[in-house]
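Model: Ready when you are.
Researcher: Fold this.
Model:
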Amino acid sequence: MSVLPYVVAVWICLVGLYGIVTSRHLLHTIICVSVVQSSTYVLLLAVGYRQGGVAPVFVDIPHTTPAVDPVVQALTLTDVVVGGAVTALLLAIAVQIEKHLHTLDPDELDPLRD
């Protein structure tokens, strides 16, 4: 078992979190949230990987052949869809903020302003 995919997932997550913390623009923050989300893809695929495993389609293969976990693949696909929906929602909110407040700088956003 290799720890490399887990190290890569943690590294991608830390890079995204660093970008979120140091961001000075809402679009940059949204992109960094997407980077953190992509680290979960790597993590889920690392959990479901089996050395020498084949696709979980059990037609015309021996019963002793190892297969990758189809549940983890389904979770990864669901994660991709949820990540796309969250990114689209955050971008729509950013467009509305820019339209109404004419800025995407988080320091200039005043929640009490009309």
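Researcher: Now this one.
Model:
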Amino acid sequence: MNTVHKATLLQKRRWRIRKKITGTAIRPRLSVKFSAKNIYAQAIDDDAGTTLVFLSSLDGELRKQKLKANIASAKVLGTAFAEKAKAKGLTSVVFDRSGARYHGKVKVFADAAREAGLVF
């Protein structure tokens, strides 16, 4: 299976997920993306087309911790994202796994965000 075909299948999974979920100002979409080296998470209001909260493993204090795209870092980033979202007044989100399976890093991120107080 070549990389072009894999990318096509990933994009189809993303579209299939996005047909079903939408973020609003009250309940934004929490999109999480794991690249080979880093983790990116953002809360998106799809109605207005704006990002309400963004956090990645490349941000200030988190960069000093040398976070990678692994399970331990996903837990740290999930907790930090939930705290940042609560500081902005967000308590409830819709989870978007961006085409990835809901296990491993994705599941740990979601569980850490839930433990820190986000509802989804």
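Researcher: Key takeaway?
Model: Helices lie at 3-20, 60-64, 71-87, 105-115.
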